[in-house]
Amino acid sequence: MLRDALSKTTIYVALGIGAVLMLLPFIWMLLTSLKSGNEVMIMPPVWWPDDFKWENYKTAWEMAPFGRYLLNSLVVMVLSTLGELLTTILAAYAFSKLHFWGRDIVFALLLGTMMVPGEVLLIPNFVFLSNLGWIDRYEALIIPWTASVFAIFLLRQFFLSVPKDLGYAAKIDGCSDFRFLWTIMVPLAKPALFTIALLKAIGSWNAFLWPLIVTSSKEMRTLPVGLTSFSTEAGTIYELLMAASTMIILPMILLYFILQKYIIQGISKAGLKG
Amino acid sequence: MSSDVTTTMYESGGIVMQVELRELSMEFQDVIAVDRLNLKIEQGKLVSILGPSGCGKSTTLFMMAGIYESTGGTILFDGKSMNGVPPESRGIGMVFQNYALYPHMTVLQNIQFPLRMRKMPRKQAMERALEMAKLVQIDHLADRKPGQLSGGQQQRTAIARALARKPDLLLFDEPLSNLDARLRLEMREEIRRIQQELQVTTIFVTHDQEEAMSISDKVILMKDGVVQQYSPPQKMYDEPENLFVASFLGSPPINQLQGSISKGVVSLAGTDQSIPVEAEGQNADCVVAVRPEAFYKAEQDEFHVIVDVELVERIGRDMIAVVKLGGTALRVFLAHEDDVHAGNRIRLGIRKKGFHLFTPAGERIPFQASWFGHKQ
Question: Which of A31, A135, A243, B234 could be disulfide-bonded to A60 (CB atoms 3.0-4.6 Å)?
Answer without folding.
Answer: A243
